[in-house]
Amino acid sequence: MQQPLAYRMRPTKIEEIVGQQDLVGPGKIISRMVKAKMLSSMILYGPPGTGKTSIASAIAGSTKYAFRVLNAATDTKKDLQVVAEEAKMSGTVVLLLDEIHRLDKTKQDFLLPLLEKGAIILIGATTENPYININPAIRSRTQIFEVHPLSPKDIKQAVLRALKDVKNGLGQFHVSLSDPAMEFLTTATNGDLRSALNGLELAVKSTPENDDKMIDIDLSVIEECLQRKSLSADKNGDAHYDVISAFQKSIRGSDVDAALHYASRLIESGDLVSLIRRLIVIAYEDVGLANPAACERTVSAVEAAKQLGLPEGRIPLANVIIELCLSPKSNSAMSAIDQALNDVKTGNYGEIPLRLKDAHYKGAKKLGRGVEYEYPHDFPNDWVKQQYLPDKIKNAQYYHPKNNGKIETALKEQYLRLRQSFGR
């Protein structure tokens, strides 16, 4: 049976992994483990198609350990026993356990002593947050690493590799992939390399050769094979980002109908990831302190949409899009942190006042650290006047509050009172 392209193109060594360079790049944690042959069990969590299985496969390939794949939900304790027996006979086995958040107690109790002895290097894969959904006994014996959606650049690298690879890829076919088709393939799959590669394989194998014995893959073919539509009739590569930009600017400008229109383009293209990420940015960047409750409701709506998926996920998102549009707006918090960051980046700051420096070690008092610090809770109203900023910027003002909404108006009054009390 012919395996899917995504399966055939799985890396066999660390250097072949696409993306996740914060984990597998030179000098990074997993790369160091492999190089030193000091593997420890781990949990990889993140969206589908982002490389969890690839990392496990590459670890096994780079260390020459046997590699086995099981599913915590569907495979039995007996399947685990087979892997354990193999480890006894041939040495360490790298076991990729998919859906590890669904591991029951019987299987867990069988695995734990094997992890302790190092007979099995467990690599758990899950799309769920392991800090919430995985048993503490397993968590305490593993390192937890988050994997992220691949960038369009990462996916393009993998696609080009697959088109060239004669043995495992599509190198035996003479394929011409148009620039718009490549652009759409790398962006519309939302960082899911598995979807991109399998869509590409379907496109190549279902498209007849032209008179020159070439297989021409254009945008319409990729759209059909991915079952997603390009966001723009002009088919240019900037369309994806143009829609996201127009979406944010419509909410910022309080145009409900325009915001719903651009959100619908993203929904129709299947790009739930970009939509929910941008909504959270909008909530905190453009609404912010003018309506903090709307920010919280945005996070709740996004979590609901993730659980529901499309098409049902559109409903909580529509609720919060309308609320954000009609909410008062303020970017004062973003402006404040950006101004403070600019001072730090340009070196426009001074020494931390001695009274604020750490005093929890022997000899700190001799250095004058923490000596003059006054504990606010010892004073009426739990406040006392003292200088917190370095001398060089003691009168700096980063936060410039606005009067947009009851919440920030109240925060402004409190901020100005305190600033005056500090003598600024």
CATH fold assignment of the largest domain = Rossmann fold
Which stretches are poorly predicted, pLDDT < 50 over at least 5 residues? 232-237
Count of strand segments? 7
What would CATH call the homologous superfamily of the largest domain?
P-loop containing nucleotide triphosphate hydrolases
CATH top level assignment of the largest domain: Alpha Beta
**What is the percent of helical residues?**
40-55%
Could you say which overall geometry the principal axes of the C-alpha atoms support? globular
By secondary-structure content and strand pairing, the structural class works out as alpha/beta
Hey, roughly how much beta strand do the residues contain?
5-15%
Arithmetic mean pLDDT: 89
Number of domains: 4
Radius of gyration: 27 Å
Instruction: Report how far the terminal alpha carbons are from each other.
Output: 75 Å
Number of helices: 19
Q: What is the succession of H and E elements? A: HHHEHEHEHEHHEHEHHEHHHHHHHH
The strand line-up of the biggest sheet is 2-3-4-1-5
Summarize the main sheet: 5 strands, parallel
What is the CATH architecture descriptor of the largest domain?
3-Layer(aba) Sandwich
